[in-house]
Every structure is written in C-alpha cells, then in structure tokens.
Amino acid sequence: MSGVEVVLFVAVLLLALVVVGAVLFGVRALRGFRAAPAPEDPAFIAEKDRQEQSLAALRSAADQANSTIDVAKSAAAAARTEAAAAKAEAKSARAEARRVLDDARAEADTILERAHRQAEADAEQLRTAARRSGEREVAVLAATTREQAAEVERRAARMDERERLHTEEVERLAERERQLTAASAELARREAGLVERETELAAAEEQRRRELERVAGLTADAARAELIEAIETQAKREAALLVRDIESDARNTAEQRARHIVVDAIQRVASEQTAESVVSVLHLPGDEMKGRIIGREGRNIRAFESVTGVNLIIDDTPEAVLLSCFDPVRREVGRLTLEKLVLDGRIHPHRIEEVHDLARQEVEELCHRAAEDALVEVGITEIHPELVTLLGRLRYRTSYGQNVLKHLVETAHIAGIMAAELRLDIPTIKRCAFLHDIGKALTHEVEGSHAIIGADLARKYGESEDVVHAIEAHHNEVPPQTIEAVLTQASDACSGGRPGARRESLEAYVKRLERIEEIAAGKIGVEKVFAMQAGREVRVMVKPEDVDDIGAAVLARDVAKQIEEELTYPGQIRVTVVRESRVTEIAR
C-alpha cells in the first residue's frame, strides 16, 4: 500500500469516528428528551430548544462529515485508480520482461539442442563450450532485461519531469503575459501623455510665432523674404570677394619675386626704433642758477632768446630748465650755449653772444661729422660739400619721431639690397635713396614740398638726372619713370612703414592689432587670440566643446567680415580658427 493510500485511510477512519461520536450524542439527547417533564415547563421548553439546536448542529456536522467522506472516497478512488494504472503498467512491464525471458530461454534451448546434435563426436568439450555459451547468453539476456526495466523507470521519471517543466512554463507564460499587459498599459499612458505634450508644444510654437510677428512687425513670409534677400546680398558680396581674392592671387604670383626681395631687404637691415624728441632739457647744478639765468629784471633770458631764437622755459621743475624751438638745429645750439654758460658761471648779454657763436660752430662741426659718417656707412664718396652740410643738418631733424638722417641711411641700405637682388646699378640706387629727403633740411626756410626742394638742390649741385627724378618722384609729385625712382619709393615705404619706425605709425599699428584681437575675442567660444605676422594673420583658439567644425568656419567668416567693415589696413588679413581636442592620460 502506498503512502497516499495510507493517508487517505487514516483520514477516513478519523471522519468515521467523528460521525459515530455525533450519532451517539444525538441518541443520548433523544432519550433525554423522551424522559423529560411535561411540555408546560419553561425550562423543559428551553432545554428542548437547545437540544433541537444541538441536534441540528449535529446533523449539519454529520452532513459535512458525509460530504468530506465522499470527497475522501473520491480522492481514494482516484488514488486507487492511479495506483491500479501504475500496477497495470508495472505488470505489463513484468509480463514483457517474462516474455522476453521466455523467448530467450526458448532460443537458448534451441541453440543447446542444435549444439548437442552437432557436437556428439566431441561430446565433453562441446558440451562444456555450449554450457558456457548458454550461460553468457542468459547473462546478456538478464542484463538486457534489467536495462529495459531501468529504461522504463527512466521514461516514467522523464515524463514526470516534463510535466513539471510544462507546469512551470505555463506559470512563466502567465507571468509574462501579466507583465506585457502592464507594459502595454504603461505605453498607452505614455503615448497619451506624448500626444498631449505635442499638442501643447504646437500651441506654444504657434503662440511664439505670433508673438515674434507682433514684435517684429513682419509676417513669417515677409521675414523669410528679407532673410533670402540678405542671404543673396551676402552671397553676392562673398562672390565679389572671391573674385577679388582670385585676382589678388594672380597678382601675387606675378609679384612674388618682388615681395621676396623686399622682405629680404627688410630682414637684413636692423634699425632702432624712434624716440620722441619735442623739447630739450638742461639739468642745472642748483635752483639758484635759475635766478642768474633770468638776470636782473629778466635781461639775461631776453638776451638769450633774442640771440639763439630758442624759447627758454623756467618752471617749478627742480634743477632743470626746458628749451623749445621748432628748428632742431637752433634748439641744439641753444642747449649747448646755455650749458656752457652754466659751466662758466658768467651770464650776461655780451657773454651770451660769444658763447652762442662758439656753440654754433661746434654744432656745425657735429653736423658735418655726422654727415661724413653717414656717407661712409652708405659708401658714397663723391658729393658736393653743400649737400654734405645740408645732410648734417638732418642729424637733428625728425619726421613723426624718426630721425631723418638715420632714415636716409636705412633707406639706402634697403635700396642697395633690393638693387643687388635685381642685378641693377647698386651705387646709383643707393645714392637716390640716400638723397631722397635732402629737401627736409630747408623745409623751415623754403616753402614747398620737400621732394621738389630736394630735387632742385640735387640738380643745382650737379647730381645726375636719375637721382633728381628719383628724389622728385618719391612722393608721386612727379610720376615715377625709372626703376631707380620705383625702388626709392619702395625702400622709403619699407623704412618709414615698418613697426616702430615712426611714432604715429607705431601707435596706429598697435591700436589696429588690439582692435583685431578684441574683435576675435568678443565671439562666443573663443579661448585665445593671437595677432601674428605684423597683423597679417589672426589665429583664434576656440573651445572644442563650445564650437564645432561648422561653427569654426562660421566664426572665421564672421571675424573676417567684421575686420573688413571696421578697420582700414593695407593688403589682406588671414583669419585662422584652430579647434583642437586633446585627451591626456598619465602612465604610472
């Protein structure tokens, strides 16, 4: 008997005992009811009602017990059915095993008989071999039977396992179906929310468009038309700039050799920067010297100013006086005169005249020596003495803060280098460049352009027509007709236009560079700005996380456009936007 049958049997036995007990209790109650007193007694009636209620409860309990018994019987019957099925399956398996065994035994008997008939000659030996063969066959058949029985058991176990897995799979599918249902509901809810949000966004976009049209006073079509017109104008402008750049590149290719020559000439000449020279300052040994310079009732200072033609400024500056004059030579003569008077200590009108003559002679000697040194440096030997004197006066002449004599020397060197590169007459071209500003020595005395004045002086003192023409044409008062005149213009422009050569040019140059950097630095995403190659190129470093590749191209175009609109400059300025991403790791 299996365990299930035992459990069912015990349950049925317990229920039977409960039913018997209930029946005995009901019989006892009935007997008591029959032997009870008369029905008129209230206690008897109450007891009767209580017993009837108890009897009804017992009956319901009996009914429940009967139903439980029926359920138990049905469960027992099902269990017996399953057990009978299992017994039948086992019986069929045993019958199959017996059949197989019987067949094997029958086959073995046949084999033994055949062997006995065939081995009568060698009876003992063959009988032994047949017996061994039969035993082996029996063992094999027994093993086969056992394997078939084990296979039947394994099949039953696999069936049970498959049924369990099937049940689990059904449960998983049900759980997945519930999850899918919940997910579908969630997706439907989100889809409804997205539809509502898209509706709100469309309404907000329409409201924004209407507000923009109201603020701008234009409809969307009108704004689109204006934008298209602006884009067409910008495209036309950029096309014109492209055409101009192409033409400029063509000219640059033709002029590349000349540019190399000019650059090489500028690089090979090292010149100092300008120093501002407005007034001369003379330091005094003490403030009491100011009173002696002024003299009684100012006669000494009046005599000094009338003799030298220099204004003497005496203010609260301790131990110093200022000398101011538009003519730098006279200012230098006046400075030397006052310096000698202070050292001598004797200051009166007659002494001022004597010292002024000595100072003028000394300045003339200094000018003559400076002119000779400049001629030696340039390599010019034959020149009229009057031109040497005029060149010496340029030692104290400045133009926009640039010393004119040094400017002539620098210009001559640049012109000589360019002439050597072009295989021209170097001495003639250096002479033209060195004498091109000779007229500035007389601009305080003769009216007119210094180029025309210088040409007249050169013609007067025996210079060649090539030199005269180069002098008068270096500022285009006369159109240049010779290569010497063109090279003189170029060398003059290189010397006067380089950064630091002239005060006003330097200030404008610095301001232009600062403005270029300000324009580029004012754009969004710019990290650093560098103006390079004397303002010919601007390199803009941008933040890669703020500006992408397309934004870099737009930024370069915007910076170039703003520089074109706001600044005035020679040539062209290249705008280079650098966007670089760097990743750094440390190997430890």
UniProtKB/TrEMBL annotation:
UniProt domain HD: residue ranges: 404-497
Which source organism does the UniProt entry give? Micromonospora purpureochromogenes
Compartments reported by the entry = Cell membrane
Q: How does it sit in the membrane?
A: Single-pass membrane protein
EC number(s) in its UniProt entry?
A: 3.1.-.-
Annotated membrane-spanning segments are 6-27
| Listed name of the protein | Ribonuclease Y
* Keywords assigned by UniProt, alphabetized: Cell membrane, Coiled coil, Endonuclease, Hydrolase, Membrane, Nuclease, RNA-binding, Transmembrane, Transmembrane helix
Query: What does UniProt list as this organism's lineage?
Result: Bacteria, Bacillati, Actinomycetota, Actinomycetes, Micromonosporales
What HAMAP family does the entry give? RNase_Y
Q: Which residues form a coiled coil?
A: 48-114, 142-221
Q: Cross-referenced SMART domains, in alphabetical order?
A: HDc (SM00471), KH (SM00322)
Molecular-function GO term, any one:
hydrolase activity
Q: Which family does it belong to?
A: Belongs to the RNase Y family.
Q: Which SUPFAM superfamilies does the protein's record reference?
A: Eukaryotic type KH-domain (KH-domain type I) (SSF54791), HD-domain/PDEase-like (SSF109604)
